[in-house]
Amino acid sequence: MSGLAGGTARRDAAGGPPEPGRHRPSRRRLTRRAREELHGRLLISPTLLVVGLVVLAPFAAGIMLAFQHVRLIDIRSLTPADLDFTLRNFTRVLGGPGFWAAARTTLVYATLTTAGSVLAGLALALALRRPFPGRGLLRGLVLVPYVLPVVAAATVWTTLLNPQYGAVNEMGRRFLGWTEPVNFLTTRGVDVAGLPVPVALGVVVLFEVWKSFPLAFLFVTARLQAVPRDVEEAAVIDGASPVQRFRHVLLPQLAGVLLLLALLRFIWSFQNFTDVYLLTGGAGGTEVVGVRVYQELVTRADIGTASALGVLMTLALLVPLALYVRLSRGEREERG
Amino acid sequence: MAATARRPRRPLDRHAVESAVLAVLRIVVIAVAALAAVAPLAYGIVLSVRPFADVVADPLALPRPGEVDVSSYGTALRDEDSGGFGLARFMRNSVVVATASTVLAVACSVLGAYAAVRLRFFGRDAVSGLFLAVYLFPGIVLAVPLFVLFSRIGLTGTLPGLVLIYLAQTVPVSLYLLRSYFRAVPASVEEAAEVDGCNRFQVITRVVLPMALPGITATALYVFMIAWNEFLFALLFLVGDRERWTVSLGIARLADFSIPAPVLMAGSIAITVPVVVGFVLAQRLLISGLTAGAEKG
User: Looking at the partner chain, which of B135, B229, B280 has a beta carbon nearest the beta carbon of A150?
Assistant: First the structure.
């Protein structure tokens, strides 16, 4: 903010473009201010329009639908006169079998995915920071999982994990002495040395980390490029060790982007439907809330309960959003 | 400050140990990442050129040069009338949808991001807050009311309906991405352009866009990939209309039909190659520093 104001002052001091009919500086500043106001609104309006029509309005409609007793076949004949107010959807959703298990699964899934994705992206960005022959190629290659269409990736993984002819089971048989093929996508858990290990959930978490760490890598790398070299060089001269340089010079610079990444990944993973649906369809203890919404909407054809589930998901996501807003505001003030 | 905070007693030893450990870690990280990134795709490619019977007989074998069999690609791409699975048609649909979404989303978000970074206007902070809030709205949550509303106005089952949704879903993130890139363009350069007589539009097209080109490329790729890869809305809107299936929906549906694994892999690779190639090529744009040297002198 202060930077902008300063910029305006400097522009005026510099004289600005010579325009006919505007000679007095004070009047020119007013005109410039008014133009800025107009241009700002004009430039933002296409975005506002689209978001308003396709995000905000449907969101409001979703909240409304959560309190209606409405099924998929009622859509065609639905009119505003049919609106009523019922909490039936919420009682059905919250009391439904497996809801709390799904909520827990979603939380575990989102948390593990976020941590794995951000840490992997950070580690790789740091590892690829210094130039070496072939770095450009590597940077391109590691982005492959992110670029892969999710359906193609899920199809390849499903084939890799196939119990009959999948490479993973074959390697287990050949090198690890597995006697029975493991059906990774439907098995809830196995005991490894007496410890229960979730199999299908582990696979979907691994898949999501694998698919999303390149984005984290890309963000961190872009931010790393903007880190001023002189501070680091000064730290080297001051005798800071590599870990200290990371901890005290790089990490403060990267904290903002890491936080943004973590919150985005959490929010996206929390609502994930596609990846889980394509891999397991919700089997083997991987039924996340996103898959339940789809089942309510398509399988049970109940718009009311599907919307109610959506509202509950949104409520749960208010916490990370509030967190993000507060932290980002604090950061902006720090920067001045 | 960093050095005085801890006061290592023997800085040289500590440095040597840390450097050695980090050097090993660095190689491990790079190796694991490269393997993880490439192995599944390589596996898909290998499987796509082997006959299914061979795959079942020996899942891990590599085909000998004479055994490479690319007929699965033809089978996947050909139209249903010619005994294929119609993937070429799905790809055409996806190209149209993804290109339209990208052009519209980048246009909207360039203008919006510039306004949000450089212009003071009534409600600017509210706009920023709004786009932050849009992150919150989960796709699966919006899917329900969007499905209802688009059914009512007859947009389900159409490609423009999908474009509209992809546009709305990517514009807030694009704007967010671009904002940070635009912030990195020094205001002094823009001011200089204004002094030289550029109007607002010229400042955007001649100064901000070239300087933020890596960011804009990244944003465009992001939108294109979201649109090309998107599955949920394609599933909800188009599942009943095989003519309009997009690549994601097409492959996912084919996977349900229990078609032979090599054909499925061939289809997956075919829809992947254009995106991967485009991305790896454009990657060069992203690597150059943003505004290095722009403010000197």
Answer: B229
Q: Which residues in B59-83 are b (16+ Cβ under 10 Å) and which e?
A: beeeeeeeeeeeebbebbbbeeeee
The number of distinct structural domains making up chain B is 1
Alpha-carbon gap: B296 to the closest alpha carbon of chain A (Å)? 14
Phi then psi dihedrals of residue A249, to 5 deg = -110, -55
For residue B78, give how far its alpha carbon lies from the nearest alpha carbon of chain A (Å): 18
Return the bridge partners of A191, or none.
A196
Bridge partners for A195 per DSSP:
A192
Q: A155, B279: Cβ pair inside 8 Å? A: no
Of the candidates B124, B152, B290, the beta carbon closest to that of A75 is on B152
Contact A148 B187 (CB under 8 A): no
Kindly report the average pLDDT of chain A as a whole number: 83
Q: What is the pLDDT of residues A137-150, one digit of tens each?
A: 888 788 888 888 89
The answer to whether the Cβ–Cβ distance between B231 and A4 falls below 8 Å is: no
Q: Model ipTM?
A: 0.79
Q: Summarize pLDDT for A212-246 with one digit per residue, the tens.
A: 998 889 888 888 888 888 888 888 888 888 888 88
DSSP string, A191-212: EETTEEEESHHHHHHHHHHHHH
Rounded distance between C-alpha atoms, residue A125 and residue B264, angstroms: 33
Name the residue in chain A with its Cα closest to that of B224: A147
Domain hosting B156: range is 93-259
Band of pLDDT at residue B11, cut at 50, 70 and 90: low
Domain ranges of chain A: 25-55, 80-335
Q: Residue A54 and residue B255: Cβ atoms within 8 Å?
A: no
Residue B188: give its domain's CATH number. Answer: 1.10.3720.10
Q: Would residue B111 count as lying in a domain?
A: yes
Residue B21 lies in a domain: no
pLDDT by residue (tens digit) across A148-198?
889 999 999 999 999 888 888 888 888 888 888 888 888 888 877 777 788
Q: Do B37 and A318 touch (CB under 8 A)?
A: no
Please name the member of A61, A235, A313 whose beta carbon is closest to the beta carbon of B145. Answer: A61
Topology annotation, domain A80-335: MetI-like fold (1.10.3720)
Residue to substitute from A32, A54, A122, A299, interface B, most B β-carbons within 10 A = A54
Residue pair B269/A151 in contact (Cβ under 8 Å)? The answer is no
